[in-house]
Structures are given as structure tokens and as C-alpha cells.
Design a protein that fits this description.
Elements (H helix, E strand, L loop, with lengths): L1 H9 L3 H20 L17 E4 L3 E5 L1 E2 L2 E3 L2 E4 L2 E2 L2 E4 L3 E10 L7 E9 L3 E10 L17 E7 L1 H11 L5 E4 L4 H20 L11 H9 L13 H7 L8 H7 L3 H7 L7 H13 L2
Antiparallel strand pairs: 1-2, 2-7, 3-6, 4-5, 8-9, 8-12, 9-10, 10-11
Helix pairs in contact: 3-8
Length: about 280
């Protein structure tokens, strides 16, 4: 810092440098003080604001993303107009972790809700980017992105990551009670419903994909909610991910190659085949 200040004092360009820093600071401050919005020119995958209706016995979400993919590209942007489920049909929750290339500490996380009849509804919580805008964990600390909850098919969520992005995908069973599973789902539905009329900002530290799930589950803050690449290990230590050891649980949860191969299966059989393999691996 001292060397920079000495350079700054001696440099004839210091007024221009100071002006640039001032413009950047004012721009960041203006962005942080502006209210979140729903009406930006969004990146297509993030363009639909989900609507949620909740009753005493069940819920409906609309739309449900069901896009199709090949390596490095989207091949079809299909949405299911709506999907309805009964709370009494909820059977299990699955936790997905997608490590980010080049870092052991960063990962995207999401949940898959399994219902009777081998139906799966997935939820991914994301920074809502505009068309042409790149994600930045640094900028995400300063109200650069709104927050969005996206309800999607398991096929969409998993194929997007394992095939199009060519990322690793780990899927773990969540060992919680039936009542806890329903409460978690209900809290996430309510949070998604609230976002549809009161937008909020994404924040890398306090409102990211992992700690939004943790808040809905009623967890106290933990470093794994920021260092999200360790969130699966943290859940194992809490007894929420089962297994005789974390290494074994981690190995059997690696679904990357299986999901890539499943991209060629008929859409109607994806959930059934995915669940059959998950049950086999986990002895369920």
C-alpha cells in the first residue's frame, strides 16, 4: 500500500487515476442502492419468474424448466406450463453438488424432491444474470445480480451440468424425517412465492445457492455456506448425508458418467432410471 501511495503522489496521471477510482466507486454505490427488479433483459434460462400456489395439501409451480442439451450447447428450450404435487406424496430429498472447475471450495448446490410414482421436481437457486452478463463471485457481493428460484425437471438440471457444461455431478440422499422434508419443501415454496412479487438481490456471502437452502432448513450459519465446495462434507458431519465414511458416500454419489449416458434415454423414463440407480447405489 505504501509503495502504491508513493507512486500515486509522484505520478502526473494521478488526477485521472483518482477520477477513474471515483467513477467506479460511485457506480458500485449506485448499483448497491438501487432496488432489485424483475423487468431486466434476462439471460434466457433465467427469464421466467416462477409462480407458486400453495394449498393445505399440495402445491403448483409454473413454469417448470425442461430444457435439453448436448455438449456445450442448449438444443431445446421447453417449459412445462405447470406441475402439481401433493405434500403427502413426497418420498425423499436428494442433494446435488456440482464442483466448479479449478476450485475445491466452490460448487453449485441444488435439491431434488422425489415424489411417489418416480416423479422428481428440482430446485436451483441462482444469480439472475442479464443477457450477455457473466457471473462473478466478487461482483455478487455488491448487488450485481437479482436472486431467482428455478423449478425444473431433474433431466434439465442434471444434464445441463454433466453434459452441456461437462462438470462433475454428485447426488446424495438426504437423511431427514418425513416431517423435516415437508417443512423444507414448504419453506422453499414460500420463499420462491415471495420472490415472485418482492424481488431480492443475490449475494455471494449471505444469499447464494447453498445458504438459501440452509436458511430454509433452519440451519445456523457455517463456513460451508460460503465455501460451498465443502457443503457435502459438512452435511455428512451433521449426519444428514448417510454413510460409513465421507469418502465412501462421496464416491458412490458421483453420477457424472451415468447422467451423461442417460441423456440418450427417452425423456419419460429419465426420473425412473435415475432413481433406480440412486437407490441401487445407496441401498434404498
Amino acid at each position: 500500500m505504501t509503495r502504491f501511495l508513493n507512486w500515486f503522489d509522484a505520478n502526473p496521471l494521478r488526477p485521472a487515476v483518482a477520477a477513474i477510482f471515483a467513477i467506479l466507486a460511485l457506480g458500485s454505490l449506485a448499483n448497491m442502492l438501487s432496488p432489485p427488479r424483475q423487468d431486466r433483459h434476462w439471460y434466457p434460462y433465467l427469464s421466467h419468474t416462477p409462480q407458486v400456489e400453495i394449498t393445505e395439501t399440495g402445491f403448483t409451480v409454473a413454469p417448470v424448466s425442461d430444457w435439453s442439451y448436448e455438449y456445450d450447447r442448449e438444443t431445446d428450450a421447453t417449459y412445462l406450463p405447470s406441475a402439481s404435487y401433493d405434500f403427502g406424496d413426497l418420498r425423499r430429498v436428494w442433494f446435488m453438488l456440482e464442483p466448479q472447475p479449478g476450485s475445491q471450495l466452490a460448487a453449485h448446490t441444488l435439491l431434488l424432491f422425489e415424489f411417489s410414482g418416480d416423479r422428481i421436481l428440482g430446485l436451483t437457486i441462482e444469480a439472475r444474470r442479464e443477457e450477455g452478463e457473466e457471473y462473478s463471485a466478487f461482483r455478487g457481493q455488491f448487488n450485481a445480480f437479482e436472486l431467482i428460484y428455478i423449478w425444473a425437471t431433474a433431466r434439465d438440471l442434471l444434464i445441463r451440468r454433466a453434459t452441456m457444461l461437462d462438470h462433475e455431478v454428485f447426488v446424495y440422499p438426504v437423511d431427514i424425517t418425513e416431517e423435516q422434508s415437508r417443512a423444507l419443501l414448504l419453506h422453499l415454496l414460500e420463499r420462491a412465492q415471495s420472490l415472485s412479487y418482492t424481488p431480492r438481490y443475490y449475494n455471494t456471502i449471505v444469499s447464494n445457492c447453498t445458504n438459501e437452502l440452509a436458511k430454509a432448513a433452519g440451519f445456523h450459519w457455517a463456513p460451508a455456506y460460503v465455501l460451498t465446495g465443502r457443503s457435502d462434507e459438512y452435511l455428512y458431519r451433521r449426519g444428514i448425508i448417510p454413510g460409513p465414511s465421507f469418502d465412501q458416500a462421496h464416491r458412490r454419489s458421483d453420477m457424472t458418467e451415468f447422467i451423461q449416458a442417460l441423456n440418450q434415454a427417452p425423456h419419460a423414463t429419465f426420473d425412473h432410471e435415475l432413481l433406480a440407480e440412486l437407490r441401487r447405489r445407496n441401498g434404498i
